[in-house]
Input
Amino acid sequence: MVLMLSFLFLPLLMTAAESGGDRKQVRIETSLGTMVVELYDETPEHRDNFLKLVGEGFYDELLWHRVIKGFMAQGGDPQSKGSPSDVRLGSGGPGYTVPAEIDPQFIHVKGALAAARQGDQVNPARRSSGSQFYIVQGRDVSSQMLQGVVRNIAEASGEPFSYTPDQIAAYETLGGTPHLDMQYTVFGRVIEGLDVLDAICSAQVARSNRPLEDISMRMEVIN
Output
């Protein structure tokens, strides 16, 4: 399962203690450092599935198998565990998908945690991979770029679409990948460790965008 790219906003730069109250948090330990993500209650199917897999140790020793600087870091393919360096990854999963929970309040700013999925041609309902996810690094975003995204989303959906002032400010401050908005389910965000995300995204990669030196992960629920 690959991130097919044919493929509320609260400040992301807060500590875990300052973040939203009762939201579940997961520590993601990597060979380059540790991140903490919080999961949105407004996307309960994705939240509960992620917590289940973390609790089962599903993600432990898996790799960040697809990394694109200025875009995102992707992991969650069970076939990556102990995988030889010449194996192309991205098609594995737990054997099920998760219904889309695409919510306009959750956007692809830097640090957004989102679910990978197959493309629209084979997955018109935009169901998410059961385990593969990505974390957005992204690039600088201008107001002009956002205007273009708004037009594209409105044309594709046939419905009006707009960003809130807070969302615009978030994109212009943190950057991101707005062209993915309303296409993939964003179900959480990094609340600690954006520097670790930057380190992962700076790794040297092969043609497949797999890091030349394996970057592993281990996860635990911390609240």
